[in-house]
Amino acid sequence: MGDVLNILTGALMIIGAAFTLVAAIGILRLPDLYTRMHAASKAGTLGSGLLLIALAIFAQDQAIVTRALAAVVFFLLTAPISAHLLAKAAYAAGYKLWGRSVHDEMANAGGDATTPDAEARSDKE
Amino acid sequence: MSASQEFLVFAEFVALALLSLSFLLTVVRVLVGPSLPDRVLALDMLVTIAIGFIAVIGIRTGFTLYLDIAIALGLVGFLATVAFARFVLSRRYEQEFVKRDTLGIYGDKDQ
Q1: What is the model's pTM?
Q2: How large is the ipTM?
Q3: Which helix (H) or strand (E) holds B57?
Q4: Which residue of A1, A7, A9, A27 to mutate against B (max B Cβ within 10 Å)?
Q5: Residues with Cβ within 8 Å of residue A20, at least 6 apart in sequence
Q6: Could you report the per-residue pLDDT of B10-37, keeping only the tens digit for each?
Q7: Are A113 and A93 in contact (CB under 8 A)?
Q8: A26: Cβ contacts below 8 Å, ≥ 6 apart
Q9: Which of A27, A79, A121 has the CB atom closest to B26's CB atom?
Q10: Average pLDDT over all residues of chain A
Q11: Which of A6, A78, A90 has the CB atom closest to B37's CB atom?
Q12: What's the pLDDT at A97?
């Protein structure tokens, strides 16, 4: 029983740390803000979530298991919200997509929405 | 020490090494930028990696009390990213970066 738990904890730790490393490499190597955000908010959250689950399996204490799972749920809830907010703010502020991006869904709908916004801001200055 | 415990110690070392490496790579992104949202994103990633560190340290030393700190750190990181997003929205992209786009990363634009 203890052997299985040790091996499971170790495997989850290695997998979680590897996912975090993948996210960091993605942040460093991908070409623009939006693709970097895709690496950080998905692989990064999965990595730290797996590490917290490894801690929950290893501890076997009800209080710690509850807190670790609560932390995982909290990160799963907040990571998409913060990534979406940052992407929306960056797009509205005019940060361009990578030059070789295939498709920009917001080019028509969101692009028009940002233009008067930018004009309104430049009027104020 | 049984074989599974040796594997656990080995996994702790591997996880710490991988997390340190990813921390360094993310710090490089914080330093090189090139724009403000890139740095904000990398700082958010640093918080995530720090939470992973806390989990591994909790397994390694048994100090699971740090888990509370991890939850608080996640909350602070989330609020910081939201606040930075508002800050990004209030800054003009043109003023900050296009005029200094020496590498031409963001496409050519009338300057």
Answers
A1: 0.81
A2: 0.81
A3: helix B36-61
A4: A27
A5: A43, A44, A47, A48, A51, B18, B19, B22, B48, B49, B52
A6: 999 999 999 999 999 999 999 987 888 8
A7: no
A8: A35, A36, A38, A39, A40, A43
A9: A27
A10: 84
A11: A90
A12: 81
For residue B16, what are the contacts with CB-CB under 8 A and spacing of at least 6? A17, B53, B56, B60
Q: Is the pLDDT of residue A123 over 90?
A: no
Residue pLDDT, tens place only, A43-83? 999 999 999 999 999 988 899 999 999 999 999 999 999 99
Asked whether B36 and B91 are in contact (CB, 8 A), the reply is yes
Q: Would residue B83 be called left, alpha or beta, if left means φ above 0 and alpha means ψ between -120 and 50 degrees?
A: alpha
Question: Is A35 near chain B, with CB under 8 Å?
Answer: no
| CB–CB contact A28 B28 (8 Å) | yes
Q: Which residues of B touch A104 (CB under 8 A)?
A: none
- The vertex-B102 CA angle with B104 and A117, nearest 5°, equals 70
Q: List CB contacts (< 8 A) between B64 and chain A.
A: 55, 59, 61, 64
| Tokens linked to B76 | 């602070």
Q: How confident is the model at residue A118 (pLDDT cuts 50, 70, 90)?
A: very low
Is residue A26 within 8 angstroms of chain B, CB to CB?
A: no
CB pairs A-B closer than 8 Å: 198
Token digits for A93? Answer: 């502020």
> Confidence band (pLDDT; 50, 70, 90) for A110?
very low
In the predicted model, is pLDDT for residue A112 greater than 50? no
